[in-house]
Amino acid sequence: MSETYVHGYHPRENERLQAQAGTLVDLLHSDTSYPSGSVVLEAACGVGSQTVTLAQRSPDARFTSIDISAASLAEAKRATDAAGLTNVQFQQADIFALPFAPESFDHVFVCFVLEHLSRPVEALAILNGLIRPGGTMTVIEGDHGSTYFYPDTSAARRAILCLVELQRLAGGNALIGRQLYPLMIEAGLEAVRVSPRMVYVDSSRPELVDGFTRKTFTAMIEGVRESALEARITDPEAFDAGVRDLHRTAEVDGVFCYTFFKGVGEKRRRV
Ligand SMILES: C[S@@+](CC[C@H](N)C(=O)[O-])C[C@H]1O[C@@H](n2cnc3c(N)ncnc32)[C@H](O)[C@@H]1O
Is the Cβ atom of 17 under 6 angstroms away from ligand 1? Predict the structure, then answer.
């Protein structure tokens, strides 16, 4: 990988990605299914958090799921095997050096990847080159600037900004969701449609309080504590106070909001 992957590859991060995927299945995937016989590339599948849902929702499509990390691919294979899926094959590869022929896929799916790349348009353009004319690309990204919550505290907001800053220092962009439309257009996709997918959490939705506020978002911020201290962009007291305040939003009177962005575009048809 050309840039440092800010979340790392630790077991706790794998669990966080799985919690995120499990909680967000309907919000993010309810309108993603591929026709029988489709050949689909999942770019940067990680530990397979989306792969299982994709392959289950489109049992008659064939998926090739790639990632640069062999350890993540092994985890992803375990996840699809455990789910009894036989329509996914995994391959270790770099998005910027993919071993596939032009126009060899009907569809491409990319989730939570562009935010970690310093050249997101180049990545999308490469992937667009692999889609047959008339095929589609689906891209999902978050945007940490879309986070707001009650009780609101500056300590919590500063802790979130630590992750935004770390990702920037690593060459990525944690605020990329809002840019999906222009990025996809610049990469050459047509008929691009972006839809915001908002997660709204209060204590009447206990599964989201646990699955999203605690185990997805707050866990993600907690996960960069050591890196933020090493980079000297915070101090232990300030960071820990911010994380405590984020946990506070998961209490009975707390509220948490976050918006994901899902874009679908078409590969230009031949004239
Ligand atoms: C946040 S994870 C997302 C994984 C998965 N798509 C999901 O939604 O759970 C980002 C993944 O991108 C992979 N990655 C980063 N740069 C890559 C590159 N140049 N080529 C292939 N994979 C890459 C990392 O190894 C990591 O597994």
Answer: yes
Cβ–ligand 1 contact at 91 (below 6 Å): no
What's the whole-model pTM score?
A: 0.93
> Rounded to an integer, what distance in angstroms lies between the CA atom of residue 241 and that of residue 247?
10
Can you tell me the distance from the alpha carbon of 91 to that of 74, in angstroms, rounded to the nearest whole number?
A: 10
How far away, in angstroms, is 45 Cα from ligand 1 center?
A: 6
Q: What is the pLDDT of residues 45-86, one digit of tens each?
A: 999 999 999 999 999 999 999 999 999 999 999 999 999 999
- Residue of 5, 27, 119, 126 with the most ligand 1 atoms within 8 Å of its CB, for mutation: 5
CA of 143 to the centre of ligand 1 (A): 16
Query: Are 243 and 218 spatial neighbours (Cβ–Cβ below 8 Å)?
Result: yes
Instruction: Find the DSSP H helices in the chain.
Output: 11-29, 51-57, 70-82, 120-129, 154-169, 180-186, 206-208, 219-222, 225-230, 236-248
Rounded CA separation 47/80 (Å):
10
CA 39 to each of CA 20, 36, 190, 193: distance values in angstroms, whole numbers, following the listed order: 26, 9, 20, 22
